Amino acid sequence: MPESRRASVPPDDPSRELRIARPDTDQGLTHLWLVGDTYTILVRGEDTAGRYTLIDMHVPPKGGPPPHRHDFEEMFTVLDGEVQATFRGETVVLQAGETINVPANAPHSFTNAGSAPARLLCLCAPAGQEEFFTLVGQPVTTRTEPPAPLSPQEETAFRAKAQALAPRFDTELLPPPGVG
């Protein structure tokens, strides 16, 4: 049996409440469009005393974030579809039911290379990534709704805002492979 890291388990904190997220029906959840995907924040850092955040990702074909890295752990579980994940320059294909853990500070990205939308759960520990997404994302109504198209000027402004805010959230947006 593993040795405990503490002398005892801390007492229950009655100020913290049970959190139930129903992404397809809960009108109180935040749905955000980012980089062509729709991200639904299921559990915020404020719900977990900052320990983690949980995000439901709807990724259409050819969707997914550009190369980046950040100073927190990130884990993805593919619920539907498949994605190609690139980690430190190596690409793997993940199918529904598979999970990948991305260590803090490692360069990575993923793409939906399939013909149908993919759905992933993303856990970030500690929490904070949901704040970045809230600041740069465009609100949408549902978990699968795409936003209105951005004009070229709006797209440029979105990218500039993400680039400017990234360091505040211990994130670095990297150039695409072969650029830089």
What does this structure look like?
Helices cover 12% and strands 36% of the residues. With 180 residues, the protein is mainly β. The mean pLDDT is 92.
Quickly name the level 1 CATH class of the domain at 30-139.
Mainly Beta
Shape: globular
Output the number of helix runs. 2
Tell me the CATH superfamily of the domain at 30-139: Jelly Rolls
Largest sheet, strands/sense/barrel: 7 strands, antiparallel
**Helix and strand run:** EEEEEEEEEEHEHE
Percent strand equals: 35-45%
Runs with pLDDT <50, length 5+?
none
Mean pLDDT: 92
Q: Which bin fits the share of residues in helices?
A: 10-25%
- How far apart, in Å, are the first and last alpha carbons? 49 Å
CATH topology of the domain at 30-139: Jelly Rolls
Alpha-beta classification = mainly beta
The strand order across the widest sheet is: 8-5-10-3-2-1-11
- CA-based gyration radius: 17 Å
Name the CATH architecture of the domain at 30-139.
Sandwich
- Tally of extended strands? 12
Protein name: Cupin domain-containing protein
Domain Cupin type-2: 57-123
